Amino acid sequence: MSNKTLIVDGMHCQKCQKKVEDALSAVDGVTSVSVDLDKGKAKVELAKDVNDEDLCMAVLDAGFKAKVKHGLFK
């Protein structure tokens, strides 16, 4: 299993948070999602390799912008 962290722009309330969680949970290969509304981050746990674009498109389809955070600090 692997993890990815996304920076999500545009979340303002718990309803927004739930929309992002639901959108990411629906992506094939995602086993769990944790969204931090205050920090504007979403952490996903993956059962298989999932393209960054697939994760970002799921968030975009839910009405928000996202990018996968890369680097040493996830």
Q: How would you describe this protein?
A:
With 74 residues, the chain is α+β, with helices and mostly antiparallel strands. The longest helix has 12 residues, at 14-25. A four-stranded antiparallel beta sheet has the order 2-3-1-4. It has two helices and four strands. The protein starts with a strand and ends in a 5-residue tail after the last strand. It is globular, with a radius of gyration of 11 Å. A hairpin with a 4-residue loop joins β2 (30-36) and β3 (41-46). The protein has helices spanning 14-25, 52-61; strands at residues 2-9, 30-36, 41-46, 65-69.
Give the topology, please.
Elements: E1 2-9, H1 14-25, E2 30-36, E3 41-46, H2 52-61, E4 65-69
Antiparallel strand pairs: 1-3, 1-4, 2-3
What general outline do the C-alpha atoms trace?
globular
Instruction: Give me the side-by-side strand order of the main sheet.
Output: 2-3-1-4
Number of DSSP helical runs: 2
**Share of helical residues:** 25-40%
* Amount of beta strand: 35-45%
Give the rounded overall mean pLDDT: 94
Distance between the termini: 15 Å
Q: How many strands, which pairing sense, and closed or not: the largest β-sheet?
A: 4 strands, antiparallel
Assign the structural class, choosing from mainly alpha, mainly beta, alpha/beta, alpha+beta, or little secondary structure.
alpha+beta
Give the radius of gyration: 11 Å
Order of helices and strands: EHEEHE
Got a strand count?
A: 4
Q: Which spans have pLDDT < 50 for at least 5 consecutive residues?
A: none
